[in-house]
């Protein structure tokens, strides 16, 4: 009997996004249009070499300096009632400019209820798959519907070594270049 190949978490997320009509695509090819995201990918891979995923401590301000405006860090917080929720731990200035600064808040505290499942599924795919992914999005929230984005999303270990953190780096651009 042969073994069943593991499912690529980015591929599975992309299929779910497609079937649900979610306004983003996911892939694990990690071939970014933005050179900064290729650089972020390379940093993550170099730090992950030989140990699975890098640690939060690997991503200090000095290492992240070129990307700080575009960085987010989100934490999976386990709860008795619902299993887990996601809380924003860090939001870069450019991200905050477009989506708001939600440090310390859970997704359901600042996202419309219908958006929470897609964000949760995205973060779950990164953590449960244990590998980075590329996301491209066409934003549909009323205050962002003129933007698209390309993002690097990857798991990182917390201070205790648990896989509870996601680092993201996103760059925005207008949907129509003349906008």
Secondary structure layout:
Elements: H1 9-20, E1 24-27, H2 35-48, H3 61-64, E2 71-79, E3 83-91, H4 93-99, H5 107-110, H6 116-129, E4 133-138, E5 147-156, E6 165-174
Task: Provide a descriptive summary of the structure in words.
This protein has a single domain, classed as 2-Layer Sandwich (Beta-Lactamase), CATH 3.30.450. Helix 1 packs antiparallel against helix 6. A hairpin with a 3-residue loop joins strand 2 (71-79) and strand 3. Strands 1-4-5-6-2-3 form a six-stranded antiparallel sheet, with helices on both faces. It is built from six helices and six strands. With 179 residues, it is an alpha+beta fold.
Features:
179 residues; alpha+beta; Beta-Lactamase; 6 helices
Q: Mean of the pLDDT scores?
A: 89
Main beta-sheet annotation: 6 strands, antiparallel
Order of helices and strands: HEHHEEHHHEEE
So what's the CATH class?
A: Alpha Beta
In what order do the strands lie side by side in the largest sheet?
1-4-5-6-2-3
Number of DSSP strand runs: 6
| Percentage of β-strand residues | 25-35%
Runs with pLDDT <50, length 5+? none
Please tell me how large the radius of gyration is: 16 Å
CATH architecture classification name: 2-Layer Sandwich
Q: How does the helix and strand content classify structurally?
A: alpha+beta
CATH overall fold name: Beta-Lactamase
Count of spatially separate domains:
1
Estimated helix fraction: 25-40%
Please tally the helical runs, counting DSSP H or I stretches of 4 or more residues.
6
Distance between the termini: 56 Å
The CATH homologous superfamily is named: PAS domain
Globular, elongated, flat, extended or rod-shaped: what is the shape? globular
